[in-house]
Each structure stands twice: as structure tokens, then as C-alpha cells.
Input
Amino acid sequence: MVVALVLVLVAVGSVVFHLLSPWWFTPIASNWGYIDATINITFWITGFVFSAVVLFMAYCVFRFRHVDGRRAAHQPESTRLESWLGIATAVGVAAMLAPGLFVWSQFVTVPAGTAELEVVGQQWQWSFRLPGKQGRLGTSDPQYVSADNPLGLNPNDPKGRDNIVIVGDDLHLPIGKPVKLLLRSLDVVHDFWVPEFRAKMDLLPGLVTYFWFTPTKVGTYEILCAGFCGIGHPQMRGSVVVEEENAYQAWLGKQQTFEQLTKKQLAKK
Amino acid sequence: MGEVIFGSGGVVPAAELPDVELYHAKTWITKYVFSQDAKVIAVQYSITAMAIGVVALVLSWLMRLQLGFPGTFSFISAEGYYQFITMHGMIMVIYLLTALFLGGFGNYLIPLMVGARDMVFPYANMLSYWLYLLAVLVLVASIFAPGGPTGAGWTLYPPQAILGGTPGAEAGIILMLLSLILFIIGFTMGGLNYVVTVLQGRTRGMTLMRMPLTVWGIFTATVMALLAFPALFVAAVMMLFDRTLGTSFFMPSLVSMGEHLKYGGGSPILWQHLFWFFGHPEVYIVALPAFGIVSDLISVHARKAIFGYRMMVWAIVIIGALSFVVWAHHMYVSGMNLNFGFFFAVTTLIIAVPTAIKVYNWVLTLWHADIHLTVPMLFALGFVVTFVNGGLTGLFLGNVVVDLPLSATMFVVAHFHMVMGVAPILVVFGGIYHWYPKVTGRMMDDRLGKLHFWVTFLGAYAIFFPMHYLGLIGVPRRYYELGETAFIPKSAETLNVFITLAALIVGAAQMVFLFNLVRSLFNGRLAGGNPWNATSLEWQTPETPPAHGNWGKELPVVYRWAYDYSVPGAERDFIPQNQPPAGVAAQATITAVSAAH
Ligand code: HEM
Ligand SMILES: [Cu+2]
Ligand SMILES: [Cu+2]
Output
């Protein structure tokens, strides 16, 4: 009796908790609203299955618990019932997988003409690099890293000279324009994550990874590191500022290129 | 239901091999310390695993204290926190659960359940335990090494694991890798034993399709472990070389804290593939024995044949096979080619189907059953609830695009604790309450057992169910402290305090269990040979606890499957596997050849 009641409470309590919970996604600020939709579909399907299974158990425990003289039925199997349940499960799984794969195919397909910029991780800070007037990012290698060249740009690559280098400051993005982040790490594995944008991706040394999104809401968003990277991991923060095009251009105009930066450093010495 | 008679009928084949002659221990030391008796080895494994498990439990308290009350406890530093999560995770998964299910339950139950006198290679079996103990001691030694144990996370991702920004990069990581290597060597010796014993050591009449599901689960998990651990083994050796000899298997050229290191050309993602090629099957190495054991607990205590035995066996085998092609679902955001996501999402979600069928069959076994709410049964019910919950959240994380926001958050921590932490642990407890009378001859205390169950089951649910919602907000895992984070509401802190309190209570309830375990040894009610009226062979031994050699003079002969409960027309509600069908006289086995010596 008690056992059955507790099982009912677990099932009902879980659903009520879910419905009343104040803890939910942060309001979305990118184009990946489909991800939230897929999660919601998944919640409905899995919530139904969970409640059904637990309530069924509760009923059985209530109805078929041992009393003197009871004897269990003899029903070793039913291929038919098992097959039907298997098929129903497969349908439920497909109902979650199909939207998931559909959205994933959008995620892996970067729209033509998407602006590229680079995010560089190192213990324990975020840096950024944007293409300059020529519109291209120069090559880089950790072996070039020095006090004057914190991101390890190739000093002999002319394409890199006009690149805009942002170290220890916020990244700004224009609203409504798709952007492809090229991710690179100088030391260990990190992970670039802005919860409001939903997507995240690891940064690894020796490899350039990427993902794309379109910021859809003006605001300042916190960057977290979601790849454990040593004791400073929780402190590895940064900010992304999403703003209107003209504010963005004004910000861009104030940034320094790689060339300016190295010259200034040389002048200082 | 039709008139099929399950696993019965057929003539019992003649013995193909003479009975084995066992090594007879003469001294106390060879009997109880360097013992070759699988039952003693099982107890050694279990005690060692539980002892180190207590360490992992205490670590979880410390971690929860930090998360619930950040900054309050000055003795928990960031270094310490990361060392705690690493040791906690590694101990729980490998040194507790793997060792306990395979080395503990496997050693005890396989020979008894298949009607063998012992494992087929008793000497290797003994070595297996001592290597395991050595592995545990090396692990413990790392706690006292200069710089402390490694704090790289249980996944030990390079380059971070062997570089200065991570605690324990000096000696801790070396000892951790050595310990893993020792564990794997030891496991292999035991594992080969379990597999060969199941394949070659069964008694007459014990066909594969008459074996209890416990044996099927442990057997399949062992085969998987034998295939999966080598990946971890080579990866550990390679990382050891990277750390000590300066090779660059996993190390590209990099700058650590402003210093150019001499590494170059290696690939950190290679480690991730090797690790998860082991790591994902590892989840099932822990889960399949739990599946098997829980099936038997439900069947015995509901006095009913497990529903769909054949499907249950096939599901175990299929899950085992499929789990070798899903490993990269741990790597959706690792930077591997994004197109792999399609493949691994599909394979991952396909596993849900055989897994779901197992769940349906467990609960369908309860239908029209005669449910005895004993302590083992309660734990079995608790397992099903917890496992279904954790399994369903796996459908979130396996569905590649949903994993984008949720990976590396507390949602993941909640998910894997439900599915491979709490659920298997509940089965471990259920199994211990169930077989303790066979191992010791005494029953464990019922009231303490129920108290232990309710606090553990409801408490663990209270810890991990709400934790998913922290992950939905975006609280990351492996964060020593959240600090001021704009999008995380204050109420999340309250929730964290609640979870910590629940964790402290659940931890304390385990002391009740340990107390019960020890006290029942002296005070427990005498159990007799078959207190649960079960059918499988381990309950039919001539002596309880079973003597060395298990079966007295003659091996049992098996006439039926392990699930003849409540058979219509039968006198009692169970028919032991070695009871001949009506009208057939029990066949005499050839007496042990050893008698001739
Ligand atoms: C009441 C019991 C338990 C509590 C309160 C608990 C608590 C925790 C906490 C707080 C973390 C760290 C979360 C983070 O900051 O990332 C953690 C990590 C972990 N736990 Fe548990 N745990 C418990 C039982 C278990 C069990 C039974 C297992 C067995 C599989 C387990 C396996 C792990 C693993 C693998 C990690 C990940 C470590 C890492 O991130 O490297 N835990 N646990
Ligand atoms: Cu980082
Ligand atoms: Cu990090």
C-alpha cells in the first residue's frame, strides 16, 4: 500500500515539479530556437513514458502484492505484446530523432557568405581575432606566441597584418548576421559556450573547430568555459555584446590591428 | 498463454568431461588470504570495493558541501575540489562498481549458478584479486603523493591532465595511470575466467538458454570489458609515455602558461576516442550485470517467471554489441567532424529500443504476480524507477542537437548519476540483501534494510531529479564555484543547498547498511539453504554457506530453466532447476574422478 502510494507520488511529483519549476532555459538570443523545440518534444514523450511505467508499477504493487493464498499467473512471454511494445518505442524514438537530425543538418551547414572570426582560448581567458580590410584571417601557430604576439599569428603572413586582435576585452557582434566562429586553443581543451546562444563547441590545441549561429537579440551575454581546463576553469569568463550595425561599426573602428599592436609594443621597448 | 514448456524437456546429456579436481588449501593462509576459491575471492573483492567506495562517498559529501555552501569551508580549495571529483568519479565507476559487479558478484555467482565447482582457472583468479588490491593501493598512494592525486576529471583529457594548470600533474597522474594499468591486467585475469567458466564449466543440462539472467548479464558485460579495457590500457600507456618520456601521442605543439613546451604533432582528440571507446561500453559493463541481477530479484520475489526470458537474453546481447558503436555521443561537441553526429545519434537512440523492452518486461513480470515486498524487491523496484528516469534523459543527450546546450552541464551529471550511479548501486544493495544469506548463512535485518532502502531511494531521487533543472538553466559541471553569473537566479543556490542536505542524509544512510552488514554476521536470523524459495542452483547447495567445491560429491544435474515459479499444477510455487520432471529419476552423475586418486 505504502509502496504503491510512494510510487504514485514519485510519478506525479516529478511531473508537478517539472510544470512548476522556476528553473528553465535562459531566454534564447540566437537562431537555434529549434533546439528548444526539440527539447520540449523530448520532454513530453519521455515524461509520458516515465509516468506510464511508474504508475503501471504502482498499480501492480497495489493489486498483486502478496496476500495469503495468492499465486502468480504463469505467463512466461508474449512475442506479440513484446513486438508491439518494441514498435511503439521505435516510433517514439523516431519522433524525437527526426526533428533532432533535421536541426542538426542545419547546424552542420554554414550558410554561404557567413562572416568568420576566430576565438582563441588559453588558461584562463578568451581572446578574439577578426579579419581586417582584406577580409581574411592570416595563419597562426602556437610557436609564434610571445608577449608581443599573444595569439601566435604568423608574422610573415601578409594576410594576418590587418587582422583585428582583441585580448582581454569583449567581443561585439552585429545583430541578425550569421557568424561562424573558428575555435582554437593555445594550450588545453576549452569550450566556448554562451547559454543564450544554446550551441557550444570545444577548442583544442592543434586543431581549428567551428560552429555558427545568428545572434537575434541585443544585449550582453556571458561566455562560460564548458570544457574542464584546470583550476581556473570556472573563472574563464568573457562577454559577447550583440548590438545594432552602426554601434558595431563604431566599436570595430576603435579596435587595433595586429600590425598596430606589434608596432606599439616595439615602440614601447 | 500457450502450452510452451520453457527450457525443459530433452534428455540430459552425458558428462563430456570428468569432474575437476580442485586445489585443496591446507593452511589458513591459502584458504582465506591467498585463496583460490572463487567464493572467498568474491568476498575479498567486495570488501575491498566497498572500502574504497566509502572513500568515494565521503568525497561526494565534500564536493556537495562546496557546491551547497561555496566559500564556507576553507579546507576545500579549488585544487582539492577537482581532485575530489576525479577520485570520486574514477573510484565509483571502476574500483567500486566494475570490481563489485564482476569481481564480487561474478566470482560468487557464476560457478554456483552454472553448477561448477569453481572458476576454471582458480590460480589466475586469485592473482586477479591481488592485482586489483595493488591497483587500489596505488590509487590511494596517489592521495599522499607530492602534489596530491590528479584533478584532471575522471576522463583525464590531455593535454590538461599532464600540464601544470591541473592539480596532481606531478605524481598524481602517473600513479593514476599506473593504477588503471594494474586494474586492467588484474581484470583480464578474472574476466577470462568468468567467460571460460560460463562457456565451458556449466554442469550437465545447464544449456545457455537455461542460465539465470544474472549469469547472462555478467557474462556479456565481461566479454565487453575484455574488448573495451584494452583501449583504455593502450591510451594509459601512451599518456604515461607522454608524461614521463616526452613522447607526443596526445600532445600537439602548445604554449602552457607562457612557456613553449617541447611537444608537437600529437592529437588530444585521439585520447578522447580511445577513452570513450572504453568509456561508453563501461557504462554497460556496469549496467548489464545490474540488468541481469534485477531480473532475477524481480522474478524470485514476485514468484513469477521473468517475462520474455528469450527477449531479455537477446536484448542483453544486442545492447552489448551496439554499445561499441555509440562512443562518440560523448564527443558531439569535441570538435570531431560534425557529420559523425548523424551516425552516432542514430545508433545511440536505437539502443533505446532493446533497453525499453527490458524495462517493459520487468514491469510486465509484476502483472498478475505474487509480489513479496521484501528488501531485495524494494531495491529492484527502486532500480526500475531510477533507471527509467536516467535512461529517458539519455534520449535528450543522445539526440545530438539537444546535447549542444546540455552537454557539460549539471543535466549530464544528473543523468549519469541516475542511470549508472544510483540505479546500479540500488541493484548492488538489492543483490547483497538477497544473497547475503547464502554467503553467510544468516539473514540481514529487515527493518534496518527497509530504512536503508527508503532513505537511499527517495534521497537519491531528491538529489538528482532537481539537478537536471540546474543544467537546463545552464549551470556547468566541474565548476568549483559559480561566482556571480548573471543568468543564474538566486533560487538556484537554494536548490543547491537542498541537494547538499539530501546528499548528506543519503550518505549517512549507508552507515546503516554497513552496520547491518556487520551486525547480521553475528546476530542475523539463521537463513537455511533457500530462504527465498528460489529455483536457481546456488540455492540448492548441500551446505550453506557452500563449502569449497560447492556441490559435495556429485555435481547437480539441471532439468529446467531458472524460472519455474508458480507453475500450474505444481505443488509448491517454485521448482528448483535440479529437480527432475515427474517420472524421471534423478540421474546419477559420475562421481568425481578425484575420488579415484
Ligand atoms: C549520493 C551519492 C553521490 C553524490 C552526492 C555524488 C555527487 C557528485 C558530485 C557533486 C559530482 C561533481 C559534479 C561536478 O561538479 O561536476 C560528481 C561527479 C561524478 N560522480 Fe558522483 N555522486 C554520488 C554517487 C556516484 C556514483 C554511485 C557514481 C557511479 C557511477 C558516481 C560517479 C560520478 C562520476 C563519474 C562523476 C564525474 C567526475 C568528473 O566530472 O570527472 N557518483 N558526483
Ligand atoms: Cu577553458
Ligand atoms: Cu575550462
User: Anything to note?
Assistant: The longest helix of chain B spans residues 78-114. Chain B has one domain: 3-251+262-596. DSSP finds 14 helices and two strands in chain B. Chain B touches chain A through 114 residues (CB under 8 Å).
